[in-house]
Design goal:
With 689 residues, the chain is α+β, with helices and mostly antiparallel strands. The chain folds into seven domains: 47 residues, no CATH class; 151 residues, no CATH class; 100 residues, no CATH class; 98 residues, Elongation Factor Tu (Ef-tu), domain 3 (Beta Barrel), CATH 2.40.30; 65 residues; 89 residues, Sandwich (Immunoglobulin-like); 90 residues, Immunoglobulins (Immunoglobulin-like, Sandwich). The protein contains eleven helices and 43 strands. The strands form twelve sheets. Strands 18, 19, 24, 25, 26, 27 and 28 form a seven-stranded mixed beta sheet that branches. β29 and β30 form a beta hairpin. The longest helix is centred in the first third of the chain and has 17 residues. It is elongated and about 140 Å long. The N and C termini lie far apart (144 Å).
């Protein structure tokens, strides 16, 4: 029976296209046949399933909505979105409860709505101004750090008393409550130009145990502190359930104290400033491969984690240590030396990618170390791509290390046990084997192999200089590309060169009517414009008219003759509008043609009064006469004392009383129905007694 099963498995696996695929399929089919359908399916599925990779910074630019998302852990400072715990609406307000991290964090550094960094006054978003339009509070943000005993959000308890109580505290969860008030349809796109706000934040993440601090108790995480030290992050990960699941009693702390000190050493960058040698930050999920997460920190901090002879976990810090083991020809049984000059294994340059805080914690490219072509017609490069690195100088140092190691000679040595027995606990060893290996330093790159049969130790490594970690930032770091600064949204553009002129046209019956004609500069065919007008006295409500796309002119409806109006204009695009322009004040004039001048104008004095006499012009446009008095024979400075309505060509008169004694000069001005005046006609003087 086993032979039949093996034959069947081999036949089925022959459809694979590679040796690895055939072996995997064979093993899965073999298990399926032996253990039954259920077990076989599980075994086959398990062979192909991979855990998700550590998220890139861009993976945290949105908030995740799914029933039970994997727990999130944040180390150092980074920008990320959240996982939705609740999204409910009550009274026109949307309540977003977001889980930023599945543990206590140090704090929130900067909140973002979409790409906008926001300013909070209390819990109210007051900047950018669109979220506080016309002084209304449209968005509020409240937070919790994730203490062991947290406090429920009062707003949630009040809005949803049947589903949310004071017991909904979110103990141990760093959360955010974002409340968004619905804006009216006219202002919706002004307040929320990108629809419902998408929250993210720059946070200072988990508190970590620092063995250098005597106040830190490894069994009480409330005594720990925030740090961006990468070796301390690696130590935390080794002792956490999502990582190595070790106890701090399993750790050789002197090694880790030294590694943390190396991580906090100050280095000089290309601008002449200083920064920490191995500091950074990143976030990951509980379902990420812990080996990959650990490797990410090891690479960023140049760590080598190993097991000591006493069984404790030690670490080699990211620095050069002068070897205390020296192997000579008498100690070496066999040595294989590869000068490593093949094009397939060496590189001409190393590229770098890191998380740039100046670019809102997005992944950016670093300056290239080396020359990608170096006289060749093909590019031979490798890339240091590590999301835990948050400094250009940091990634540039790792690029140089990668360049040196990829182009370094390789050696494999078999040595006597007595001379090399401690190699498993060293990172560097010195070898003197002339003529090729004269007092060279070898960095061990693979776990040494002990042969108890032959009492030998075999190890592999690369030949490195003793100044492996030396780095002159002024000459070697290079200049990174300019970071892209997102422009703030400007919304719909305000109309430019807005102007209104009063025009007239003949209507039914031969009468003329006035209207406003608005003009502006052309910007785009996609824009339309709304003209609004209203009497300055506000005796009528505002009225408006909208242009067609591509037009640069629109006219108002008919205006009341002689009434003063205020006009303003705004732009519309896809349901959103700009602000209105400033008002333009105009007076409606239906008939701009003045009548003829009056004739036979005369002024007669009397006791505290004068009498005007004149003959109206024989003009159909004549409507009335305005009467002016002055104490000087000049129209300038004259005072309007009366308006007399009458018919064309009629003799007319008007008595004006209540005057003080003195000499007066009169002027008569004919006007049409729109108030357009003719030239003033002097009446001569008169004496008032």
């Amino acid at each position: 029976m086993p032979g039949v099963i093996e034959l069947t498995a081999l036949i089925i696996s022959s459809v694979a296209t590679s040796v690895v695929g055939a072996n995997l399929l064979y093993l899965g089919t073999y298990a399926l046949a032996y253990a039954g359908l259920a077990f076989g399916a599980q075994a086959l599925q398990g062979l192909f399933v991979q855990k998700p990779s550590v998220p890139k910074p861009e993976d945290g630019s949105y908030n995740l909505k799914q029933p039970v998302p994997p727990l999130t852990f944040a180390l150092g400072r980074m920008k990320k979105g959240s996982d939705y715990a609740t999204l409910e609406e009550a009274g026109g307000v949307a309540y977003h409860v977001l889980i930023m991290a599945a543990h206590r964090i140090q704090g929130y550094v900067q909140h973002y709505l979409h790409d906008d960094a926001v300013t909070l006054t209390g819990d109210v978003v007051t900047s950018p101004s669109n979220y506080h339009y016309n002084g209304n509070d449209y968005v509020k943000i409240d937070t919790r750090l994730g203490l062991d005993a947290e406090t429920a959000y009062p707003a949630m308890v009040t809005a949803f008393p049947t589903i949310w109580s004071n017991n909904h505290r979110g103990d141990g969860l760093a959360t955010v409550l974002m409340r968004c008030v619905t804006a009216n349809s006219q202002n919706y796109l002004k307040v929320f130009p990108n629809q419902m706000p998408q929250h993210s934040a720059v946070i200072d993440g988990a508190l970590l145990f620092d063995p250098r601090n005597p106040a830190h108790n490894p069994s009480d995480d409330n005594t720990w502190g925030f740090t961006q030290n990468l070796p301390l992050m690696r130590l935390w990960h080794l002792c956490h359930p999502v990582g190595g699941k070790l106890n701090y009693a399993d750790i050789y702390l002197p090694d880790w104290i030294h590694a943390a000190n190396v991580g906090d050493q100050s280095v000089t960058n290309r601008t002449g400033g200083t920064e920490k040698r191995y500091n950074g930050g990143f976030w990951f999920r509980a379902n990420n491969d812990p080996v990959q997460v650990g490797r990410l920190m090891d690479e960023a901090a140049e760590l080598v984690v190993y097991e000591r002879p006493d069984g404790l976990i030690g670490v080699h810090a990211g620095e050069y240590v002068e070897p205390d083991i020296r192997l000579t020809a008498a100690d070496i049984i066999r040595c294989t030396h590869d000068v490593n000059q093949r094009r397939s294994s060496t590189v001409l340059a190393v590229r770098g990618r890191f998380t740039d805080p100046a670019s809102r914690y997005n992944t950016v490219d670093a300056a290239i170390y080396g020359d990608p072509y170096a006289g060749e017609d093909t590019e031979r490069t490798v890339t240091v791509d590590n999301q835990a690195i948050q400094s250009h100088n940091h990634v540039a140092r790792l690029q140089k290390l990668r360049y040196t190691r990829r182009n370094a000679p390789r050696v494999t040595i078999v040595a006597h046990y007595e001379a090399a027995k401690n190699l498993a606990y060293r990172r560097f060893v010195r070898v003197h084997l002339p003529p090729r290996l004269t007092e060279v330093v070898i960095e061990i790159t693979a776990t040494p192999k002990l042969s108890l049969k032959n009492l030998t130790i075999e190890f592999s490594g690369i030949v490195v200089p003793s100044n492996l970690y030396a780095f002159n930032a002024a000459t070697e770091e290079g200049a990174p590309g300019a970071s892209v600064t997102p422009l703030p949204p400007h919304g719909v553009p305000l109309p430019t060169n807005f102007n209104v002129t009063i025009s007239t046209e003949v209507v039914s019956g031969g009468a003329t009517a006035a209207y406003g004609s608005a003009t502006w500069d052309f910007v785009s065919d996609s824009l339309i414009y709304e003209l609004e007008w209203q009497p300055t006295s506000e005796i009528e409500p505002p009225r408006s008219v909208t242009s067609k796309p591509g037009e640069t002119q629109v006219r108002s409806g008919y205006l009341s003759d002689g009434v003063q109006y205020r006009f303003r204009l705004r732009t519309w695009s896809n349901g959103d509008s700009s602000e209105f322009t400033d008002y333009e004040i105009r007076t409606a004039t239906a008939d701009p043609v003045a009548p003829g001048v009056v004739t036979n104008a005369d002024l007669t004095g009397g006791a505290a009064q004068v009498q005007f006499d004149w003959t109206a012009p024989n003009s159909p446009k004549y409507f009335a006469s305005r009467l002016y008095l002055n104490t000087a024979n000049s129209m300038t400075g004259a005072t309007l004392v009366a308006t007399e309505y009458g018919s064309p060509a009629a003799d007319d008169s008007r008595i004006v009383t209540g005057l003080s004694a003195g000499t007066y000069y009169g002027f008569v001005v004919a006007i049409n129905s729109s108030g357009v005046p003719a030239a003033a006609v002097a009446t001569g003087s008169a004496i008032v007694t």
